[in-house]
Design goal:
The complex is a heterotrimer of chains A (143), B (120) and C (332). With 143 residues, chain A is mainly α. Chain A is 83% helix and 0% strand. Chain A is extended and about 70 Å long. Classes of the chains: A mainly alpha (143), B mainly alpha (120), C alpha/beta (332). Chains A and B meet through helix 2, helix 3, helix 4, helix 5 and helix 6 of A and helix 1, helix 2, helix 4, helix 5 and helix 6 of B.
Chain lengths: 143, 120, 332
């Protein structure tokens, strides 16, 4: 067998993750997280917060909770089952900021915690903002 | 409180997760790439006017996933460009999302102070 | 070209093993010398924990072999951390001459081969060898932060938390290190760091074939032929590839990565990996069975995946290696 044949052989025999089961779990957990967010939004609106502010507070609340769950060690246990269900909502972003931060404590608060926070979140913010700049420039010229 | 808000949030939010799960399982794309792609796709879909109707229909199901982060970036830029012209392209994105981004880092620091890493 | 190195007068005197919590909950629990429930081993970082684990294991070895640090001529060994720091810190207090070695998960066998050569050549009277790995330091270095929410693929393997240390010497014991084969780097093109079994399988096959072709031995001559950490996936691949090459290994062919955990119950996907995998399974389980005379003729094939984080990010394939030693029980 040459390399190509071997890679093909190894890939074809490797057990695959059960995509359908994973998708069902991701759907249920992801849907639930969005509903929890919606509940907080309704709560803030009920407390007479403006809708625009309520949406922001909704995200902040989920970020807070996901970070807390990361800290007490529940998030990775849920995520192991839920996969994209916890990754795709803003909870996944919060976990990506919090988990390296907690772990890097042993390397100090400046060179460890604060710098490691950006290891996954950094690229998200960089490419998100750059995409928005490009859109902003186009938007400026077409309006 | 409208029960429909919850039904649509659940369906749309769940659907965004399923799409990502299929990509993870079938193409071995890493989680970090999913996060980046979702935000950029959110900006793109908002720019071409597709995401706004999804938000109206899906409520939190469209704003909570990371595409919603992209949506907020794009909306912020639109608003800022409208107010300040071209400079808005630079300021609008982070202005609109500053609460979430800043909160993420501030909370992360708090959790790092409070908690210690554990084995799974 | 001759592959087999033949030693005369190299003996295995004693072994010592320390493992973490999950390993102590596995089926081999009773065979290890000590275990620790605390992942930090009483220290404040995972890296220090690994050093502490190595230090403890070395002390256990000295105690079991009834030796003082000054009786040991040489320590050889390593771990998975960058620049092998866990071992360096651990042996610093002992003041024993030290050679740090890196062979990823084949380190214990690599160390055994180098130590045997020193002893066989008459340069030293004895040598302690060791290899360690820690789940948390390995996850940090090769994968994600521990609290990061990620899913495991079915071919991924779990790094063993543990350390194995053995004492080799020129003074006769019942356990003789007879032969060794130094592995070649085999790069079969596999890039998936979550399928290291498939990456390492061909290296193991290469070494096993070279040994059997040159020695003329038959698989049935051995009570146990154990690879290091191919896991279920790599074990099955190696079995099939060897069969295609005309070598049928039977029931006595196994992999340490399949033995240390209850894979179903402990949810360990394809099994175990890490330097400590073979180091603790041989040092704890197999060596004790040799002592009980249940095993007399054992082939150990330490397998190593020589990747690092940057090579993975640069989309390089995984160079792999497999070293072999042959240990026999001989009545004195």
């Amino acid at each position: 067998m040459n390399k190509k044949e071997y890679i093909k052989y190894a890939e074809s025999r490797a057990k695959k993750s059960n995509c359908i089961v994973n998708c069902v779990k991701a759907f249920l957990v992801g849907g639930l997280i969005c509903c929890i967010g919606q509940a907080f939004k309704d709560l803030y609106i009920y407390l007479e917060v403006e809708e625009e502010t309520a949406v922001i507070l909704e995200a902040v609340t989920l970020i807070f909770l996901a970070g807390l769950f990361t800290g007490i060690g529940w998030f990775d246990k849920i995520a192991k089952q839920a996969g994209a269900g916890t990754l795709v909502p803003i909870t996944g972003f919060s976990n990506a900021v919090t988990s390296p931060a907690i772990e890097a404590k042993t390397e100090g608060f400046i060179t460890g915690v604060a710098s490691q926070m950006f290891i996954i979140a950094g690229p998200v913010i960089v490419y998100g903002t750059v995409a928005s700049i490009i859109y902003g420039v186009i938007y400026f010229f077409i309006t | 409180m409208d029960l429909n808000d919850y039904l649509y949030s659940f369906l749309i939010g769940g659907a965004f997760c399923v799409v990502a799960q299929i990509f993870i399982d079938k193409s071995k794309v890493t989680a970090a790439r999913i996060l980046v792609s979702y935000v950029v796709i959110g900006v793109l879909l908002t720019a071409i006017g597709v995401y706004e109707p999804i938000v109206e229909f899906g409520r939190s199901g469209a704003t909570v996933p990371l595409t919603g982060f992209g949506y907020a970036l794009a909306k912020g830029v639109e608003k800022a460009v409208g107010e300040n012209g071209l400079l808005g392209a630079l300021t609008g994105g982070l202005k609109a999302t500053s609460a979430g981004v800043t909160a993420s880092f501030a909370f992360a620091l708090l959790w790092a102070l409070m908690f210690k890493s554990k084995e799974k | 070209m001759k592959s087999i190195l033949r030693f005369s007068g190299v003996y295995l005197a004693e072994t010592a093993t320390t493992v973490g919590k999950k390993e102590s909950e596995g089926p081999l629990s009773d065979f290890f010398d000590s275990h620790e429930e605390d992942v930090y081993f009483g220290t404040d970082s995972f890296e220090k924990a690994e050093s502490e684990m190595v230090r403890r294991t070395l002390n256990i070895l000295l105690g079991k072999a009834n030796k003082k640090p000054e009786d040991i001529s040489l320590i050889l060994g390593g771990d998975l951390l960058n620049q092998c720091v866990a071992t360096s810190f651990a042996v610093s207090k002992s003041q024993i001459p030290f050679l740090g070695l890196y062979g990823a998960c084949s380190t214990i066998i690599e160390s055994a081969i180098v130590a045997s050569s020193f002893i066989n050549g008459g340069l030293v009277d004895n040598a302690a060898i060791l290899a360690s790995s820690h789940f948390c330091t390995a996850e940090r270095q090769y994968r994600f932060p521990l609290e990061y929410g990620s899913q495991k693929t079915p071919t991924s393997q779990n790094t063993v938390t543990g350390c194995g240390s053995y004492l080799l010497q020129n003074e006769q014991t019942s356990f003789r290190v007879r032969e060794a084969v130094v592995g070649k780097i085999v790069d079969n093109g596999i890039k998936d760091a979550n399928n290291m079994g498939a990456a390492m399988a061909t290296a193991a096959v290469d070494t096993i074939l070279r040994y059997f072709n040159e020695s003329g031995a038959k698989p049935d001559d051995f009570d146990m032929i154990a690879t290091g950490d191919l896991g279920i996936e790599g074990h099955e691949i190696s079995l099939e590839l060897l069969k295609r090459c005309g070598l049928n290994l039977g029931q006595n062919y196994t992999d340490c990565g399949m033995l240390i955990y209850d894979i179903q119950k402990q949810d360990m996907q394809a099994g175990a990996s890490g330097c400590a995998c073979m180091a603790t399974v041989f040092g704890g389980y197999l060596f004790k069975r040799m002592k009980r005379n249940e095993l007399r003729n054992v082939l150990l094939i330490g397998t190593g995946a020589l990747l690092n984080r940057n090579s993975t990010l640069q989309n390089e394939s995984i160079p792999s290696i497999a070293h072999l030693i042959h240990i026999v029980r001989e009545e004195i």
